[in-house]
Every structure is written in C-alpha cells, then in structure tokens.
C-alpha cells in the first residue's frame, strides 16, 4: 500500500520497474490521492492511471483543467455512466475520442458521439458501434 504522496511520487519517478509498477497498481487511502493531486499537480494524470484509484478521485480528475489528466480518466474502464456522459461532452476532441474508443462506453454515449462535430471522434464511435 502507498502510504503518502511523497511515496507515490518516488515510486512513479523511479527507474526500478517494480517500484514504477507499484505506482500504477498499489492501493492508497483516498487522503493520499488527494494529497498527490493537491501537492504534485504534475502527477495528476499518473494518479488517474493507477488501477485502484477511487471513483471520488476520478470524479475530481475528470474536471481537471489539464487535458492530459482528462484523457487519462477517459481511458479508465471503471467509469460511471455519469462520467462517460460528462467526458463525452468534453471540449477536447481527444478526450471525446478516448471515450468513443473505451470498451466500456455505453452504447447510447457512443451513438451520440457517432455524430460528433470532430470527424475523428465520430469515426471512432461509428467503428466501435460496428
């Protein structure tokens, strides 16, 4: 278990594959994730990449100003229907494209994205719809 924001940063920036992997796979208390988000803004997308990060933190990150953070959230399979819907309306075409390509995206969201103003988003959604 990751016990502090500093530990997460150390693991994430380590050259050791086992430590780097821990940053992506190990659990941490919600308070640690929130501390990372607050104290280390450059690590927010890596928080989103963690396999165990709680939905409360993903909800926060889904509204992040940094497009790369929202892209990382959009790639998660465990999103709620509300988050799929929210991110499918993101101003960034890249975020919407990641939602269109996410294997867990609800069909109704993908159907709406099939007529997205951005052709790459619409094409991805149509491709995934079959």
UniProtKB/TrEMBL annotation:
Segments for region (Disordered): 88-130
Polar residues bias locations: 88-105
Gene3D superfamilies xref list: Leucine-rich Repeat Variant
Coiled-coil region(s): none
UniProt name for this protein: Leucine rich repeat variant
Species name: Sphingomonas aerophila
């Amino acid at each position: 278990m990751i016990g502090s924001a500093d530990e997460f940063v150390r693991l994430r920036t380590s050259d050791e594959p086992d430590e780097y992997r821990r940053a992506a796979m190990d659990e941490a208390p919600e308070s640690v994730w929130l501390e990372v988000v607050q104290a280390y803004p450059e690590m927010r997308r890596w928080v989103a990449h963690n396999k165990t990060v709680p939905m409360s933190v993903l909800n926060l990150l889904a509204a992040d100003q940094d497009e790369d953070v929202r892209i990382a959230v959009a790639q998660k399979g465990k999103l709620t229907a509300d988050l799929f819907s929210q991110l499918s309306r993101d101003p960034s075409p890249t975020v919407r494209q990641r939602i269109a390509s996410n294997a867990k995206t609800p069909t109704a969201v993908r159907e709406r994205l099939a007529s997205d103003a951005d052709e790459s988003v619409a094409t991805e959604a149509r491709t995934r719809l079959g």
